[in-house]
UniProtKB/TrEMBL annotation:
GO terms for molecular function: GTP binding; GTPase activity; microtubule binding. It comes from the Eukaryota. CDD domains: DLP_1. Keywords: GTP-binding, Nucleotide-binding. PROSITE patterns: G_DYNAMIN_2, GED. The keyword NAD does not apply. This is Dynamin-related GTPase. Signal peptide: none annotated. Residues 114-475 form the Dynamin-type G domain.
Length: 912
């Protein structure tokens, strides 16, 4: 086992109990210290095995022996060994390049935020050396100033590969983009409104600072740039064509100069970002540089919270690796970034620290230097995993960061002012750590400490860390891509398909509207619901109930007699008959059931009781007529119509006059029924048009207006039909149903006469005597079938009035049955059955869309091209509303991007 070569992570970086990758070397297990062998064997090799299996296996790689505390080498030798050439030459780097390439492809597609592609977020307090770290890693200069120079997030996407140039070298290029995800007030833009736009392409590193400053200015002045109609943001690009290669920064454009000093920009900070896509970089990385955290502002203190919120927003996502810059020689607890990182990452699983400006600690400050050395060499690791040197170092002063710390030494202001190059800066950094007596001593004691010192080590470590994070998130990114793609496809399915032939599409929609209206009107379940038809039936029943209460009734003594029985009203009689056994209501019995009800002893008392609110409520609940007449009033009416008739004859005009007292009330009920049906039809029409044409505002408005006109036309025809029907009913007294009429009249006459005479039926004991009398009369030639027949033969002083009242009740009972169905049937046949008429609807729509043109078409004018006009009108009508069109465009674009993202995520290179 000790002779076996195994992959070992020189800089152990942990997250919980899972080991993560930093810089990979191939070392002999026997070369490890004894106390580290067991821990090394226990460490999880699963991920490294996956990486190793994808590389070219070399059984006897010439491994570089790693100096342990027992095998000390000179600091210069250690640093030289680390500079072993491009990482792309190793198998591990090939795997890294694949994973980082996948991440870059996802970023190119613009789905990195949606799929939560891991990224490195560099943040720190103002003047913590953050920009210098970004410059060193990216190899490009960034804007500098005395105050805050980073005023928006800057995303740097670095790629090592590029198109071969002259001499076989990679062509260095930087594409600068501006990305708008927020409006000028900081509110997120709606889906489809956000965009990423190319600002310029730079091929000379000396020109990049001016271009980044101009791109920031574009984002910080949204109103001015938005008003630039001709060229937009391009007007602010520096004059690159006139700039000298490797010389001075290019001259600013006139638009850029017009913005004036940065202090006068419209915004001081923005959440919109500048993107640098660098090809030909020294590492495959994506880092996001955030504005430095400020603690004061001379003009606007509210900007402190603006920057604070921006930084916290970028630190919060779990797929962001927090890279914080902490200047040496300062208490880390005083740095706001450390507090923000703890809030976003309480366990420190995705946070890493970069110690800047190590030269701020003098060689005589051995205590402070010792703390810093222990902080870097003794980065916290889980039990069983060695720290940076393979031996347990002293506990770190800040154990929060489980990914540990790096130390970098970047040029100072004087060196930058002198024009130090990147190569010179890195060489100076190496000399600093190699020649510094304290760092040199520390590296002799722990050679692996060198893997945490310098920009090259930082770049390699961050690259490995990002690779590990991407590999870890790969399954989740696949799952998220599939889920989001399904969601977008579902959204597109819910939308109407894109219109290709506007005229045909409009006609199809009209036919669907017509069919749906007809199906709803005829209770066809294919219409989707029977709610509309059921609502119509409710209105028909309400019409019937109102018609019931408009029928006649007569008050005779203390009883109220109506034309309709309980069964006619659709009500059940009580078992014992009660006060409403059939069509007769005993007011005496009714008020007896009312607590503290009125006392009724005469017809006068009964009339007074009918004014009682409690009695009126009972009458309404039991559908009794609202109006009534007394026999006295009937007699007065008869007297007014007496003329040339012989005694014993009733004037027919008096009968007509009595009937007319209760005629005409159907009109109000029928009009109310039609109005209720019309309201339901308009609601149905609005709903159907919204369902079919909701995405096309102009078509929805035009068809809705046309359908409204169509409905109103049908309602007018229905009202005319009802007028004819009601005029026939109210203008004539007629029935061929003579049998039922005579039967009803005789029954009503008997009931009215009994009430008038207050007759009580003979009881069981008196019945033999009654039968004897009837038998005796029969022997004398006077035949009565029963007691009721003998009773009806008696004359009263109001026989004529009783006969007229009985005839009136019988007629309205016959007429009610025909009118109860006639009105709803007229509504159904004239309005509802024609509601879904496709020809009528189509004609109404074209009249609405073409206006005067429709009249010309109907008139057959030769000069009018109806087909062309209809086609143009259809195209105009089926224009989607901007919001829907934007949503569709966004969904289509996202579906395409996610489809491509899945293809990328399912390539063999992504199957780790």
């Amino acid at each position: 086992m000790e002779s076996t070569f195994l992959p070992l992570i020189l800089c152990i970086i942990t997250s919980g109990s899972r080991m993560r990758l930093a810089t990979v070397r191939v070392v002999s297990h026997a070369q490890l210290p004894r106390d580290a062998r067991t821990r090394h064997a226990q460490a999880s090799l699963g991920q490294m095995h996956r990486l190793a299996t994808m590389t070219t296996r070399r059984p006897h790689v010439a491994a570089r022996s790693v100096a342990t505390p027992m095998q000390a080498e000179s600091p210069a030798r250690v640093l030289q060994q680390r500079q072993h050439g491009p990482m792309a030459a190793t198998g591990y780097q090939r795997v890294s390049a694949r994973l980082l390439g996948i991440a870059n492809q996802l970023r190119d597609l613009g789905v990195d935020s949606d799929l939560k592609v891991p990224a490195l977020v560099i943040a720190g307090d103002q003047s913590s050396g953050k920009s210098s770290v970004v410059e060193a890693i990216a190899g490009v200069p960034l804007p500098r100033s005395d105050g805050t120079c980073t005023r928006c997030p800057t995303e740097v996407r670095m790629r090592t590969h590029g198109a071969p140039g002259e001499g076989g070298s990679a062509v260095w290029q930087c594409r600068i983009k501006v990305v708008r995800n927020f409006d000028s007030t900081g509110k997120p833009l709606a889906p489809g409104e956000a965009h990423e736009k190319l600002f310029c392409t730079v091929t000379d590193k000396a020109h990049i600072t001016a271009c980044i400053s101009a791109a920031q200015a574009v984002l910080l002045n949204p109103t001015v740039v938005g008003d630039a109609v001709a060229d937009g943001a391009e007007r602010f690009v520096p004059l690159l064509s006139a700039a000298e290669p490797g010389g001075r920064a290019p001259e600013a454009s006139s638009a850029m100069r017009g913005l004036g000093d940065a202090a006068g920009y419209e915004l001081q900070f923005t959440a919109n970002k500048v993107v640098l896509e660098i090809v030909g970089a020294e590492a495959d990385l994506t880092i996001i540089d955030l504005p430095g955290i400020i603690h004061s502002h001379p003009k606007d203190p509210s900007l402190i919270d603006v920057v604070k919120s921006l930084v916290k927003c970028y630190l919060a996502p779990a797929h962001h690796i927090i890279v914080m810059t902490l200047p040496a020689g300062m208490d880390a607890e005083t740095q706001a970034i450390l507090q923000f990182a703890r809030e976003a990452d309480p366990e420190g699983r995705r946070s890493i620290g970069i110690i800047t400006k190590p030269d701020k600690i003098g060689t005589d400050e051995r205590t402070e230097w010792g703390k810093l050395c222990n902080l870097v060499a003794g980065a916290r690791a889980p039990t069983g995993v060695p720290a940076a040197g393979g031996s347990r170092a002293a506990a770190a002063p800040n154990p929060h960061l489980q990914l540990g710390y790096y130390v970098v030494k970047n040029p100072g202001q004087e060196q930058l002012a002198a024009g130090i190059s990147f190569e010179q800066a890195r060489a100076a950094e190496e000399r600093y750590f190699a020649d510094h007596p304290l760092w040199a001593s520390a590296m002799k004691a722990n050679s692996l400490l060198s893997q945490r010192l310098g920009t090259n080590a930082l770049r390699d470590g961050l690259s490995a860390l990002l690779v590990d994070k991407i590999g870890e998130h790969m399954p989740e990114m696949r799952r998220s891509a599939r889920a989001q793609l399904e969601k977008r496809q579902a959204e597109l399915k819910e939308m109407s398909p894109a219109v290709r032939n506007a005229h045909e599409e409009l006609m199809r929609n009209l036919w669907r509207i017509s069919d749906t209206l007809a199906q709803n009107a005829l209770a066809d379940i294919r219409g989707g619901s029977l709610d509309f038809y059921q609502e119509l039936m409710r209105h028909y029943r309400e019409y019937g109930e109102r018609s019931i209460r408009s029928t006649p009734a007569f008050l005779v003594d203390t009883s109220l007699i109506s034309a309709l029985s309980s069964s006619d009203k659709g009500m059940r009689s009580s078992a014992g008959g009660g006060p409403i056994a059939t069509c007769e209501l005993s007011l005496k019995e009714l008020v007896a059931r009312i607590e503290d009800g009125p006392v009724i002893e005469s017809e006068k008392d009964a009339k007074a009781a009918l004014e009682d609110k409690r009695v009126q409520i009972w009458l309404q609940q039991h559908k009794f007529p609202e109006g009534y007449m007394t026999l006295v009033e009937v007699g007065q009416l008869r007297q007014r119509h007496l003329g040339r008739e012989l005694p014993g004859f009733l004037p027919y005009s008096a009968m007509e006059a009595l009937l007319s007292k209760f005629k005409g009330k159907h009109r109000d009920q029928a009009t109310a029924c039609l109005a209720a049906v019309e309201a339901e039809v308009h609601k149905l029409a609005h709903r159907v048009v919204e369902e079919q044409l909701g995405h096309y505002p102009r078509a929805k408005g035009a068809v809705g207006s046309a359908l409204c006109s169509h409905v109103e036309s049908l309602v007018q025809e229905t009202a005319a039909e009802l007028d004819k029907l009601l005029a026939r009913e109210d203008g004539d007294v007629f029935t061929l149903n003579s049998y039922e009429y005579e039967v009803m009249r005789n029954e009503f006459l008997a009931r009215l006469k009994r009430c008038y005479k207050q007759l009580k039926q003979p009881d069981h004991e008196a019945m033999p005597e009654v039968l004897d009398v009837l038998s005796e009369l029969s022997r004398h030639g006077v035949h009565f079938a029963d007691f009721d027949a003998a009773f009806m033969a008696q004359h009263t002083a109001v026989d004529d009035e009783l006969y007229m009242a009985a005839s009136c009740l019988a007629y309205f009972k016959v007429a009610f049955k025909r009118m109860q169905d006639a009105v709803p049937m007229a509504v159904r046949s004239t309005l509802l059955r024609r509601l879904g008429d496709p020809a009528a609807l189509e004609a109404a729509v074209w009249r609405e869309l073409l206006g005067a043109g429709a009249v010309a078409a109907e008139a057959g004018e030769d000069s009018y091209d109806g087909s062309a006009a209809k086609a143009a009108a259809a195209v105009a009508a089926l224009q989607e509303d901007p919001q829907t069109a934007s949503r569709r465009q966004h969904c289509v674009a996202m579906a395409q991007k996610l489809t491509e993202a899945l293809q990328v995520l399912n390539t063999p290179a992504a199957q780790l």
